[in-house]
Predict the structure.
Amino acid sequence: MATPIRVLLVEDNQVFREGLELVLGLQADIEVVATVGDGEKATELARKLAPDVVLMDFGVPGIDGVQATAAVRRACPDVAVVGLTASANSRERQALFEAGAVACLTKDEELGEIVAAIHRAVRA
């Protein structure tokens, strides 16, 4: 079996974070290495844990998802960031891409699409 894709999940909504951690953890080829509820801790954990992918909520407290994405990419250039948003408009989504995200999904995407985005991110 291939090495699983290591994922850091950054999401402030605890129920959504725990649910996503649970369903991603059921995927044989994905390992959720940590979860965090704010953007400031994301960079520290990315440095420490060296995930392959960071799933980044747009609306995290502290520094927002755009700032956190940029900080993660500066600290860990090999880490791919996939943005997650409940309601970001096109300008906000564009800001995520400009900060270094390789994809931006809405939180109501099917699990299969989130998993596919994680796989695409490691190949990007």
